[in-house]
Amino acid sequence: MMQPATLVNRALLLVFALAAVAFVAYIKPFSPSAPKEAPGQTLRMVSPSEAAGIIDSVPDTVILDLRTPLEFDQGHIPDARLLDYNKDDFWKRLASLDRDKPYVIYCATQGRSFQTFEKMAALGFAKVWLLQGGFYAWRNAGLPIAH
């Protein structure tokens, strides 16, 4: 027969284990998924190496850097175009872009670029690839950086 103290210890251990599982599930990193594609649309979240391959192989790809001018000046993907997310007219400027061109978009870590990715999908941009992890992931992958 089990001692009462042993039962209490096992019950406490079970409670702590369940709390740990719940905590890990709660803090699990948020991993957004790509918006649903309309017919004729390509909307993908891609790794730095996949983005580099797209930039090299898809003609006329526009690389949009959504960071601030200061961030851009400290380093960016070669041939990237700055479109400062923090500017008052950002959404208007985004909406004025050619929707038929292919785009690779990024910011520092993927926060600003994910919101832009969703908006570009809703606006009907044909081909948009979001760089997962943003510029930091690109840099950490050892890919080329322009200054």
Automatic annotation (TrEMBL):
Coiled-coil portions: none
Domain Rhodanese: from-to ranges: 57-147
A Pfam family assignment: Rhodanese
Domain of life: Bacteria
Protein name: Rhodanese-like domain-containing protein
Source species taxonomy: Bacteria, Pseudomonadati, Thermodesulfobacteriota, Desulfovibrionia, Desulfovibrionales
